[in-house]
Amino acid sequence: MDGPLFTSDPSSSIVTERTEDTTGPPTPTKFVFVTGGVVSSLGKGIAASSLGRLLKSRGLRVVNQKLDPYINVDPGTMNPFQHGEVFVTDDGGETDLDLGHYERFTGENLKRTSNVTSGSVYLSVIQKERRGDYLGDTVQVIPHVTNEIKDRIRRVGEQDVDVVITEVGGTVGDIESLPFLEAIRQFGNDVGRENVMFVHVTLVPYIATSEELKTKPTQHSVAELRSKGISPDVIVVRSDREIDEGVRKKISLFCDVQPRAVIAAPDARDIYEVPLQLHDGGLDAVVCDRLGLVTGPPNLDVWRAMVAKALSATESVRIGIVGKYVGLPDAYLSVAEALRHATAGHGLKLDLVWVPSEELTGLLADSYLEDLDGIVIPGGFGYRGVEGKVMAIRFARENGVPLLGLCLGLQCSVIEFARNVLGLHDANSTEFDPTTPHPVIDLMASQEDVEDKGGTMRLGLYAAKLAEGSKIRELYGQELVYERHRHRWEVNNRYRKDLEKAGMRLSGVSPDDNLVEYIELVDHPYFVGTQAHPEFRSRPDTPHPLFTGLIAAAARRGGLGAGVQEKVDLTVE
Ligand code: GLN
After folding, report:
1. What is the pLDDT of residues 428-463, one digit of tens each?
2. How many C-beta neighbours within 10 Å does residue 116 have?
3. How far apart are CA 260 and CA 249, in angstroms?
4. Which pTM does this prediction carry?
5. Which member of 110, 291, 489, 500 has the lowest number of beta carbons within 10 Å of its beta carbon?
6. φ and ψ at residue 273, rounded to 5 degrees
7. Catalytic residue list contains 407
């Protein structure tokens, strides 16, 4: 297993398992490019993540990267309802949610360089053009844009790494992906074909009327890829059922790949089962052979045990996520995954309930919350849905329902407490009511009057000091912890004394004591809030302590208390 996750020194983000081999010449960094065909949402990101896990389990140092064809410079300003959550890296990058999958599967903390968008590429090309860096050349997609893309890939390969796995977003045939495909084609020539390979993920649909799995769309997709000058070395075949030998042979023949390089990936029972499935299909062996990587077999013992534990769970806890974007669960992907890690770690199943915060008004509100064993209030921006969150928090506080507030969730907990316990009826955040008489959540002095809103965000890893004897300190088991942040507003220090006096413990603060990072209620089974986003650091094999604490409390509430410990231990003998 990796070292401790939650106290890691931010500078050592790449965990190295392999001891340096000093005999023989160093092996050059290898590059695997993952493309997708036929339809989107095939699980290309999961395939790229799973390959990362398999190679890492063979002792190789791996970095995943995503090339996104859209024109936004990063997903930071994109509506989560369209694009899903914004995943935040240790170094404060606002990135595509696939980076969350990469981190969860490989256990590597990535940097912002692992996400490249067309917008960011064009931005730097245009900036260079304005500066005169191109010395009067006509600036073109080939070579200027493609060179910029190749630089971004090469730069990731310059880290202490054996294999870079780069996923190209979108589907082969999209207009937007063309410069990326051209760049990865050229890349093979630049660094040597023996150092580069192409994995294509496609769909083999089942046609019910003829009771057949069809390979034609895969053939077309590979033909399209070839028309861009890229011949796949491996085809990962997604399907809703097992594929037989005949289908694999056909794909091998028509798409000109070795039969052993056609890897079946039927729908899995659990996404974390996919690395095991692809390993059984021979993916990592084919990749290592093709790239000349000599390693032993992967050590997947912990992973296997973890998946087995998750799949054998029978009893479930019912957790509600109260949010604004519940219509698109991807908007809270890392939160849902962190809940899954924690429940699986406790040997339980997750019964996840999406509660639309805007509908939590009036007398009906309680009916949404009554059956829940635990509640999570996730992060968010803007006033819409906030009153419903405050309502849910009040319900949790008054009825002893375990609650975890994340970022905005902490802020709403403070607002609720100020209004209903301190009696400050109009208490609010100045984000929602700039003229509130009781700004319990406010911008810090240095953040006011800044034109560029993005510039004022607290982004990336920050440290917090946890108070002796607090619940949160007990859960983390450490005094100094690091978590990722993405927010502007903070608990107003003017109200700290009053909050504490009334029973809200401010159990974690920034090392300079200037910012409140964690809160908890003393007389409550589990009422915890954090200004950070711990969900970004939860991993299936190391569930996050704030989430395992929530699930333990929820299990007790649901009558499953026996045998459920506060912390989980996934080590295998
Ligand atoms: N809108 C709040 C702020 O900016 C909370 C942000 C969040 O939940 N990520 O401080």
Report:
1. 999 999 999 999 999 976 554 444 444 488 999 999
2. 26
3. 9
4. 0.92
5. 500
6. -85, -20
7. yes
